[in-house]
Amino acid sequence: MGKERIVILGAGESGVGAAILAQKHGFDVFVSDFGGIDDHYKKQLIELNITFEEDRHSASDILNASEIIKSPGIPNNAPIIKEIKEIGIPIISEIEFAKRYTSAKTICITGSNGKTTTTLLTYHILKNAGFNVGLAGNVGNSFAAQVANADFEWYVLELSSFMLDDMYSFKADIAVLLNITPDHLDRYDYKLDNYAASKMRIIQNQTNSDVFIYCSDDEEIIKVLKKSQVHSKKMPFSIETKIEEGAYFLNDNIHININLNDPLTMSITELALQGKHNIYNSMASGIVAKVLDIRNTTIRESMGDFKNIAHRLEHVAKISGVNYINDSKATNVNSTWYALESVSTGVVLIMGGVDKGNDYNMLKDMVRQKVKAIICLGKDNKRIHEAFEDDVDIIVNTFSAHEAVQVAYHLAKKGDTVLLSPACASFDLFKNYEDRGNQFKIAVKEL
Known about the structure:
The protein is an alpha/beta fold. 35% of the residues lie in helices and 21% in strands.
């Protein structure tokens, strides 16, 4: 009997990590990418002697697998996926595969917005508290590669709905669901219920010794909770109501009541992360920390000195009294709403790109109140013009970060903020949101 064959579709961070782990456990491994493979990843595959192909999916090399590990970016309607499903070969995510080979405990964070920030803040608190902890999922290095090469006792994992869709026996010891707002609906038959069900997979397989942390102010979460069986211990957080066991917000203070003998109260002025949405993110991370019995002083210090990631409300420069902010990671409408909510000055907003079936209505009030001009940065800006033509006097089309920044420089007055917060994916003009953010930063520095 030959070695069991595992085929990995997609040769990015998660795919190459899965290949490393599969090889370590004696599988016959083949990696296939429909696009070109980045040199950095190609070098790793060559060094490990792992066979791969790029710019195609060869059915003859794929359909003989006993299991397929799929990159989260590949949609279910891709031709090769349909063929695999017809034959009935199981398809799993890198996260599902990696968890088979580790007994580490997992803290899993999902939501339409704020998950990267919350994941990084949670990781920061645990690290400061001396935990032996890894960071993976949508951020950091591949979970599978870390399981193969590191020896962490805990992992903080940022999980997207696409990852959750291909997870079956995986269990989160602590699950966090921040919010559910329309995003990626093109992958869910344009039905919010399908997307919400996908997010709720974060609690599958949990038992009464596990914990489920969620926002009780979020209508969609409350709606889907009514239809879900939850076996784990529920710990909600809220800005609107007082919570007995969980976290709530009152008189500019966050209150975290997990261990009732030792509650944590913290003024929002002490938090490194500002803006209403970040109160939610901080409460979620704070509950995790208290569940793990981390000392209040450590939680306070960590929440006070945390530095957020690049491309998420990142201050770039102040030029002639105008602030330039890079929020390129805002790839959906809700993220852009949060960005506008956290800015108190007049805004010149740079937005646009690949529209994922966006509903811009939720932005209209915020745009009317704060936005002086919209600069579109994308190949097709028709829907942005239609959405906001009655709300803002100036809407301009641009086709490069440099051009967008030049136009913004002329439109912004002293005291204003130029905000790149696209509400769209970046693939029409850029490699990814990081590339878009970096080009914006370069263009600002050239002013």
